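ok trying this again, last paste got cut off
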Amino acid sequence: MSTPEVRSLYRKFWRQAHRSVMWVSPQRHAIASKLSSAFRSPTPQDLDPIRQANTLAFLKSAAETVGTEHRVIKKLCFVHWSRYCDSKLMMKPYPMHAKNFKEWLYEHEAFDNYEKCLQMMNNSLKLCLR
């Protein structure tokens, strides 16, 4: 893809994603962060035009109605925000964050399961959500 095509695609995703979260502040910032990281290091699946079209349709559906799609996008933003943006809950190395090793291990395993679940949803619906 050439630079103008990538820029145009980024803007389409940016507009639809912000509409899907209805311009709410924490989700808006999480969406911006997710989009910028996704376009800086795209995977081969992200460059598939069918997946791009399906993802744009998913975001459009999330913007039009407050249904399942909207809730999925909202939860993805919340997990991203709580994982990377919230200073109290930010993922830190074991000794600084958790009271004990078990608690730290559960938190990391939970995010592993989250990543696997998101990947299965992307594969079944042919999306490129992160």
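PB: full thing came through this time. The longest helix spans residues 101-125.
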